[in-house]
Design brief:
about 130 residues; alpha/beta; three-stranded mixed sheet; three-stranded parallel sheet; 2 helices; about 15% helix; about 25% strand
Length: about 130
């Protein structure tokens, strides 16, 4: 898993789990630790990579040109901004499944809040907006 992630990461700079995401526990078992990578441009292809464990790609972003492009097709997106127009645009983007506005972890949930995986989700469009 670590070698696969490294092959995908390319020139991304590791900020967390720089040595390895695999942490051996000493009893023959191991755990996967979170990984955080820094990308140097907003159209970096690595930003589209999803892993089966906590893996974050941090990239620069500017509201110029097709500024929505790097944000599209996102499962959880966190926006640290008071910009009402930006927040409105993010909520209106159908390819973003869950939006957290403000300081709240993307793992936060409550009963009834839509998430990926509801049985009928292929029949209806769901979106969650959480304002911290």
């Amino acid at each position: 898993m670590d070698a696969y992630l490294r092959s995908l990461a390319g020139d991304a700079r590791p900020l967390l789990s720089a040595e390895s995401i695999v942490d051996e526990l000493g009893d023959g078992s191991a755990v996967l630790r979170p990984a955080v990578f820094l990308l140097d441009r907003q159209d970096a292809p690595q930003a589209r990579i999803e892993m089966g464990f906590s893996c974050v790609w941090v990239l620069p972003w500017r509201r110029e040109g097709d500024w929505m492009a790097p944000l599209r097709n996102t499962l959880p997106l966190t926006a640290f901004t008071d910009d009402a127009d930006l927040n409105e645009s993010l909520v209106a983007e159908p390819s973003i499944d869950k939006i957290h506005i403000g300081d709240r972890p993307t793992t936060w949930t409550r009963p009834g809040l839509p998430h990926e995986g509801y049985l009928a989700s292929f029949l209806m469009w769901t979106k969650a907006v959480v304002i911290g």
